């Protein structure tokens, strides 16, 4: 008999059939005569109950069936008497595929998330991380489906690059140097500047600039891959290695860009509600009692659109009324997540798309407004998270863009190819970046970004 995944098995009603399941023992309990084993194979959060008549099996074999052990069983699919379960298995044959000794750290339930982070190699075996990583997969699939169905092409941008797409200097350098034999300059200082086979190279912070090249050739594209930021920030919302989705569309203005962002994010959340309900219910019950209601709310509500200037006014009024923020509020200040969350959670009470930021606090490539002070950028701000998306209409005028490159002291040798697009058939275009893990924070209700990626890379954390 071939193996049935537990997710499929629990839907079956052909009671009396012989079935095979393979998986990991979650719990074992019962009397001296009959034992009940909860088996999980990762295909669903739900376990299948195995009913084992102890008299029918060898004692040595039974001893090996401990929490964490991997077993294969053949048995009869039986209607379950227990509530909530459709089917169970009356076990006829057991094979132990892998024993698990008592040093297995996941013996008991209810380990803290902090402890589980220290055993990231084993945490996918828990209910919580099984749920999170199944949702992560489903979201990745939904993202590809969304764009594919709408005629966007998945475009691969390089991870090793010479340019700094955000112009913020937050890059990890890539080196081919033999660190025992590093070149030094005349003062004896180590020369790290040109070290990728004799050139300077970094890990990418964003695929946007290459994405713009593609959009002005293929029309509409998206990237979806890892990006790296060497910011030394230890927060529940920042990773040194995170995944980003970056659509870029020729002929879209910033308004089209906002419409796309709102539609896209609602599609992803609806996808989770339609395809991940068992996992969401588990997370709702154990971590975030308001989760499912919040997800259902977001797909229905129209996002509030407000300019940065309006947002600052709201925050200044809050300060005047006595609200205390850690960081100062004034026109020109970069918004901190406390400000973003105040606007979303306390004031507008819905997701906010904030536009027209001062150019000084935004990247060099954003299209300038006629006022000479603001740029056509947009950030999508979400409850519990703050910024989930950052994007803009792009500056397409060669001279204006060149001026911004110079003002930001970006070396021309890194930008000439990007500037070329503005020389050869330039056109209006817009795009944005969604932080995949920020989306997952929202969809899973987890509160630390380290808990929505299998192997989080943060300062001091890159062991495995
Ligand atoms: O706002 P950011 O820096 O924008 C860009 O990278 C643009 N090139 C996007 C574009 O227009 N194509 O980053 C975009 C999003 C943020 O809104 C946030 O969700 C996420 O990426 N992000 C991070 N996520 C986790 N850890 C970090 N250190 C992040 N930095 C940004
Ligand atoms: Mg941003």
Summarize the SSE layout with pairings.
Layout lengths: L5 H4 L8 E13 L3 E7 L7 E6 L5 H5 L6 E10 L7 E12 L14 H6 L8 H23 L3 E2 L5 E2 L40 E2 L4 H11 L1 E9 L12 E10 L3 H22 L1 H10 L4 H10 L3 E4 H13 L16 H11 L4 E7 L15 E9 L3 E8 L4 H10 L8 H5 L8 E7 H9 L20
Parallel strand pairs: 3-5, 6-9, 11-12
Antiparallel strand pairs: 1-2, 1-4, 2-3, 4-5, 7-8, 9-10, 10-15, 12-13, 13-14, 14-15
Helix pairs in contact: 4-6, 4-7, 4-13, 6-8
This protein binds 4-amino-1,4-dioxobutan-2-aminium adenosine-5'-monophosphate and magnesium ion.
Radius of gyration from the alpha-carbon trace, in angstroms:
27 Å
Instruction: Give the domain tally.
Output: 2
- The residue ranges in which pLDDT falls below 50 over 5 or more consecutive positions are none
Number of helices: 13
Strand line-up in the sheet with most strands: 6-9-10-15-14-13-12-11
CATH fold name of the largest domain: BirA Bifunctional Protein, domain 2
User: How many β strands by DSSP?
Assistant: 15
